[in-house]
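<discrete_fold_record>
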Amino acid sequence: MVKIKSWLERRKNGTVTTPLGFCAAGMHAGIKKKKKRFDTALIYSKTPCVAAATFTTNRVKAWPVLHSMKSVAAARHHAILASSGNANCVNGPNGKTAVQDTVREAAGLLKVPEDAVLIAQTGIIGIPFPITCLKRALPKLVNRLSPDGGRCAAKGIMTTDLAVKEVAVSFSLGGKRVTIGACAKGAGMVHPNMATMLCFITTDAAITKPLLRRAIRHAADDTFNKMAIDNDQSTNDTVFILANGESHAPMIQKIDRDYRLFRDALEEVCRIMTYKMVDDGEGVTHVCTLRVAGAKNPTEAERAARQVANSMLFKTMLAGADPNWGRIVAAIGASGVTFNLNHLSVAFGEAVIVNHGRLKVLNIPKARRVLQHRYYAMDIVIGKGRGKVEFVTSDLTAKYVAINSSYS
């Protein structure tokens, strides 16, 4: 699915606590009804961190998002507190109070300033938040903090996810080993411009706050903002990154070779998380890497890719392993981009279906065989321009409908 760049080392069983100086914990606090399901997570660094974040662009934002959008501006941070099972959104002023009280309690237990604790929550929208459950669990959560707690923290943010999503990669910077670790959740309501997703990233690199902010925005735009499971956008989407400098690598203070190495490694981590989320999408049976090229410019390439990736007819076509190329052409036309039908080509793997606007009938059986696989790429050329983009999308199945018809 995702190839690790040659200069990166993917850490086997790597987690959000693989970078030096981080510990984490996860447990069942009582937010979810089933006792065996973790619903709370805490990530902590004793060494102060610089932090950056990206948030949902939905105009309806959950209380934790509104709180963290302000607190992320602080100079130093120590922790990320997260919970699942309740979005704490559109539930009145008590939801805001719940965030404030929880952060205050966690900060007191960790002996750090309140604005040093970032918060994220996910789950069902519009119901009261069970603040008592979470506050009661916080002392236990803090006591369970461990360098081996990354997997438990990753479990603590899962909702309809079937698989734990985590990774860590390492690379050399100034003669020192630098590591970036991450955990994420996301399986539905995944749409470009973030999704029903939480992603927490840690690194032992040393970097200034402005450059960390620049790097995460770049990485998120090329990965999290270019994936699609369905056409819905959540109220709680959050990506946090904490950098504590524990690797003792040289501080990244300007846009130079070290910054670009860090940015590229961060983007690779985010790309891996993107594939893991789409692969674990609700009811997903096929993951398609959609590559659009030949557009007038990158913006038009992205418009075309978004239109195809989010087309219900295209996604059901993938579900049925049916290379109905007319749906692809129709979606490109609906995107409004400039393209020449005579220059159009469509290929599933090595199976070219359309070439210069003409159907190559002999390749339809080959295309059907490609579409039977779980993972494959589809290449679309819409002209002779230099604009190109890569998008990750999935099929849409009856199981998706079943899951979401009884979610609450």
Q: What stands out?
A: Residues 287-404 form a domain with the Ubiquitin-like (UB roll) fold (CATH 3.10.20.340). The two ends are 33 Å apart (CA to CA). The chain has a mean pLDDT of 91. The longest helix spans residues 257-279.
